[in-house]
Each structure stands twice: as structure tokens, then as C-alpha cells.
Fold this sequence. Notes:
The structure holds 2 protein chains of 2 kinds. By secondary structure, chain A is α+β, with helices and mostly antiparallel strands. Chain A folds into 2 domains: 124 residues, no CATH class; 155 residues, no CATH class. Chain A has 13 helices and 14 strands. In chain A, the strands form 2 sheets. In chain A, strands 1-2-3-7-6-5-4 form a 7-stranded antiparallel sheet. In chain A, strands 8-9-10-14-13-12-11 form a 7-stranded antiparallel sheet. In chain A, β12 and β13 form a beta hairpin. Chain A is elongated, with a radius of gyration of 35 Å. Chain B folds into 2 domains: 54 residues; 287 residues, Rossmann fold. In chain B, 33% of the residues lie in helices and 19% in strands. In chain B, the strands form 2 sheets. In chain B, strands 2, 3, 4, 5, 8, 9, 10, 11 and 12 form a 9-stranded mixed sheet that branches. A 3-stranded mixed sheet of chain B has the order 1-6-7, with no helix packed on it. In chain B, β6 and β7 form a beta hairpin. In chain B, α3 crosses α4, α4 packs parallel to α6 and α7 crosses α9. In chain B, 46% of the residues are buried. The chains are: A alpha+beta, B alpha/beta. At the A-B interface, α4 and α5 of A face α2 and α7 of B.
Amino acid sequence: xxxxxxxxxxxxxxxxxxxxxxxxxxxxxxxxxxxxxxxxxxxxxxxxxxxxxxxxxxxxxxxxxxxxxxxxxxxxxxxxxxxxxxxxxxxxxxxxxxxxxxxxxxxxxxxxxxxxxxxxxxxxxxxxxxxxxxxxxxxxxxxxxxxxxxxxxxxxxxxxxxxxxxxxxxxxxxxxxxxxxxxxxxxxxxxxxxxxxxxxxxxxxxxxxxxxxxxxxxxxxxxxxxxxxxxxxxxxxxxxxxxxxxxxxxxxxxxxxxxxxxxxxxxxxxxxxxxxxxxxxxxxxxxxxxxxxxxxxxxxxxxxxxxxxxxxxxxxxxxxxxxxxxxxxxxxxxxxxxxxxxxxxxxxxxxxxxxxxxxxxxxxxxxxxxxxxxxxxxxxx
Amino acid sequence: xxxxxxxxxxxxxxxxxxxxxxxxxxxxxxxxxxxxxxxxxxxxxxxxxxxxxxxxxxxxxxxxxxxxxxxxxxxxxxxxxxxxxxxxxxxxxxxxxxxxxxxxxxxxxxxxxxxxxxxxxxxxxxxxxxxxxxxxxxxxxxxxxxxxxxxxxxxxxxxxxxxxxxxxxxxxxxxxxxxxxxxxxxxxxxxxxxxxxxxxxxxxxxxxxxxxxxxxxxxxxxxxxxxxxxxxxxxxxxxxxxxxxxxxxxxxxxxxxxxxxxxxxxxxxxxxxxxxxxxxxxxxxxxxxxxxxxxxxxxxxxxxxxxxxxxxxxxxxxxxxxxxxxxxxxxxxxxxxxxxxxxxxxxxxxxxxxxxxxxxxxxxxx
Lengths: 381, 366
């Protein structure tokens, strides 16, 4: 017969009470244990209510504090009188959306590299603030391109130390070399407006710039009476043409005619590029026989391009052929007379036009990534 | 022993006793064997089951193999919003679009007029309802810059809900920028709290997978779920904004602020995601805050020059219609084709862009 201990191995009544009685000694020991536990609990509660003051002697060890963030290119001493800096934050191309969701694509398409952000709060009135968004666009061309794209119609730009600037009610817009700055005031209160004025000086003095001169095309357009602030820089995909990179354009006073220039690596490349512009325009228009002009089949406007040395100049959106010819001729003349230093600068920065296959491949990838979005643009060429 | 031999009867008794003992022993041995066999079978079965569970390949039934560690993760809870959303049954003859216009008029009066044009807040909110209001708090911008819902409109909307007997009014949004900073800078937090609403700021644990049948991009996607617990009515209130990618952001795009996860990827198919948002959340009604219009540099804006007064508030049971009105009459882009998401919403019968064909009631305030 199996002993009771053996039977317990597979005891079907595992919770059965086998001890009906406990010895007095066991009861006493149990009581002592319960008392001990109650004592420990009481001690914990009492200590919780009466903490040792020395625990807080090194309170700074308990404070995680604010992580130190490098200033990057943000100038020291940026805060105007009466304002104090908040925390600094930096954003790259992969997380720019965390700061300007929905607007990030605008900057990344223009060569964005980094955004440095800091908010300045008025020390007396918390409702008054200025948010400084400092965009490193990689080059002065890109910075000016981003600046021009955000400038409202009818606003005149002024020459800054190494770029352009303007004030628009509660905001200051400035380029300085490869940097584009938006300083956005919370209102038009005098304290904010005064601070914006001081900020411009601090930014211009503190920001680094490779050179103070504006890109070469600005001088060229200036010869045609076009203000620097009206010039748009298309880093890539100008006029929705995949091959068109590094194009400067400006809308003329009639509000319809747009002139453009672009540098090519050499004369042969410039001739080929001009032909590609014409081919692009012809995809939505009819080429005039024997002429470098295309008439848009929908709008009836005229577009043309031609090479002048290693540079290409063009006109698009012109309502009338003779005026377009005159404008193109004048532009090419200015190009021909471009000072040698500027010409060298233009050629030095000329991006080789992508090969046809490269453009098609890039556009195909773009289309896949976009999931069919922006089909109108893809279909342009 | 010898004594037993001397007594023949006792010998018989002894034999019988021995036989009985032998029989008892045999029976006991038999029972012991049976018990042993039962226990051995249990042990063998348990061992075989444990071996199967431990060694069987991952895809076999009852296998506990977890080579990648994926099976060990807890299965996420998948939630659904009520069938038909939070919309109410159509009332015959009731307006679908209430428009209040008024230059310099009090915002609260304008909102009341727009909602009254729809039949009054009592049509939508009943005594004891738990109402969730979803404003646009997307950016850390001051209210006058037009990138977010105006706090005065939110205040007025909460008051209307309270007057109609709402048991609780909640305000929630999930801005990509710091939620605390966005709610504070826009003035929407203080507006909500002062008007007696509860503000829900998103925390990681507040998100659950939402199942939206028929959605192309967000059939299962993290959703800001905590504010929706126990909610009976949902109202969206959005500003009128230019948008860099989808051309215009109004009441339908506003639901984007309820998504979690890496939602920025949806900017690759912005029109598709907005159509999905309209499918995801069918509100009780929406309010289009056209008190001012961010007509360029959207959705962030920045300069006061990008903002113009709109002097209009629209209330509608059809968010697509409200947005079409905003596109035509507040952004003043009637000469341009509607952005792609309008067509996608119409294809799915989530609203109409032909707002003039609806029952529209327009009132002038002040």
C-alpha cells in the first residue's frame, strides 16, 4: 500500500485541508509574524509621511534638467531686449515634418538641410513671442529660392549683408548666404515689431556666409531691371521639366511673361539644353517652323529658348510673339556682355543636365513613391 | 506453526485466511498496477504534450515555438467606431448647411446662428451626451495667424453643447508638434478649460488600432482612442487654410489630427488619406471656422499678410459640402478645380461637392 506521502504525488484533492489543528506554538509564531508585517507596514507609511529631509539635500540629482542642445549656427545673444530664449531644437530632412508638417515638402524640394528653431518669449507678457526658424538650405541659391517662393505679391525685397530681406507685418524674412530665416511674431504689438528690427541686425552679424555677393543671375536680371526679390531659383524640375536644374526665372511686369536663364557646362551642352527646353514646350504646343518658339496649344502663349555661349536663356508665357522675341534678344545680349568673373562663376556652378534615361528613371521612381499623386506634373513632359 | 498442524479445523481456517490474504494481495497488486499504468499514462501524455509544444515547428497547431519573438508579443487591441459613425438620422426638410455671415459680428452669435440654421444644437446634442470636439491645433502658432481653430469659436461651441445639456464636453487633438505647446500657444487649451471642457493631450498609451473597413490606407491604423471612450457625439471644428500639398485643409482634413503612428507618410497620397479620413470618422456635424482665412503659405502660415478676414461660420452635416463651400467662397478658388480628395469622397458617397443642391440656410448676423 502506498504511503500517504506517495499518494499526495497525484492527490486529486490538492487543496484538501490535512491539518485540522495547529499547535499553540504555531499560532504564537504566526501571530508574531503578523505583528512584524504590521510593524513594517506602519513604518513604511510613517516614513512616507515623514521623509528624511536629507533625501532632498541633492535635489539637483533628482532633476533630469533640460538636455543641452548645441546652438549650431544660431548666433549667440540673439534675444532682443525684453525677450528670453526658449529651448533650441534642430530638425533634419527626416524629421522636419515634426515641426512643419504639411509644409516640409516645400523646403525639402528646395535643398533643405537643417532647421534650427528657437522661440523668444517676452519677459513681461507671455503672449508676446517670436519664433525663429533658421533654415540651412545648403546654398545661397536654394535659400533665395525658398525665400522668393514664400514672398507675398507686391512686397519689395531689400539687399541684406549677404542676401535679401523684407518685413511683412508681424514677420521678418531674411536670407544670409545659405540660410533662410523666418522670424514670426505672435502679433503686431510694438514690442514685437521693435524686437524684429533688432533681430535682423543680430542675425546678419552672427550668421556665417560663404560670400556676400548674390548669385550670378541676380546681376544679370538686374541689368534687365528685374528686382532680386522677384527672382525664383528652381533647384530642380523647373517648369516641371525633369532635366531643368539650377534655373533662375523671373516674372516680368506684365504678370504673364517669364524669363529664365541657366548655365550649362559648355557650349555644346547649352545648345542641347536649349533644344530640350523647346522639346519640352512642344509637348504641350506647336513649334513654329524654323523658329526657336513654341505656341502653347491650350493658352496660346509663346515659349522659346536658345543658347548664348555656355548659357541658355529663354522666355515662356509670353502673350505675343514680337514682344517675346524682343525679350529673348535683350536677355541674350545681356548674357553675351556678362562680365568674365560672373560668367566663370555661372559656369563653375553649372549642373550637368541629366541624361534622358536618368530623368525618366527618376520620374518613374517619383511617381511610384507618390502613388500617382501629382500626375499632372508628371504628365507635363 | 506446529500448533496449527495439531488442529485440522484450524488448518483449514488458516488456508482460507491465506487464500483470502492472497486474493486481497492479488487484488491490491492489480489495483496498484492499474494505478501505476494510469499515472504512467498521465506522465507520458503530459511529456508528449510538452514535447510537442516545445519542439513542433512554429506553424504546427499548439506549437509554442517562437523563433522570431513575434508570437510572444501581446496581440494589439483593435477597436471600431460605431456603425454609421456619430451622425444622426436625416431629418426630412432639415437644412444640411447653415451659413452665418457677419462683418465684425460677435463670433458666439455667428456660431449660434449657423447651428440654429441647421435646426439648433438640440438637434444634435441631448441631455447627458458626452460630446467630443475636435479642433485643429496642428501648429504652435498664435490664433490670429490662422493656422489653427480660433479659440473664440471653440469657446462658443462648448457653451452651445453645455446649453443643450451635454453631460461632458471633451476637446482633443494630436498635433505633431509638442501638444502642450500647441494647445497653449494657440489659446485653445485655456479656451476649452475656461468654458468647462476637458482637454485630452495625447500620450503614447492613448492610441489603439482602429479598424476602418474599406479604407485604402488606414484600414488598421493607430488612433487617438482615449478621448472617444464613452463618447456619444462628435463635432469637428476646423479653420479654412491653404495647404502646400492638398491645396486646402478644412473640416475633412481635420480628422488627420486623430491619427497616430508615422502618419507623415500619408503625404505621399494626401488626397487618398483625406478620403479615408472622411470614411473613418462620420461626425454628428462639423463647423467650418471661416472667421479668418489662411489663404497662402499654408498650412503653417506665419505672416498676418497670409490671413484675410472671412466673416463666416458654416455648420454642416456634410463635411465635403462644407469644404466645397470653403473652397469656392472663403478661399475664393471657384475658378480652380476642386482638389482631388473631393472627388474621392464623392465616389465613396461620403458627401457632395454640389453644396448648392443641398438644403442651405444662410443668415446675416449683425
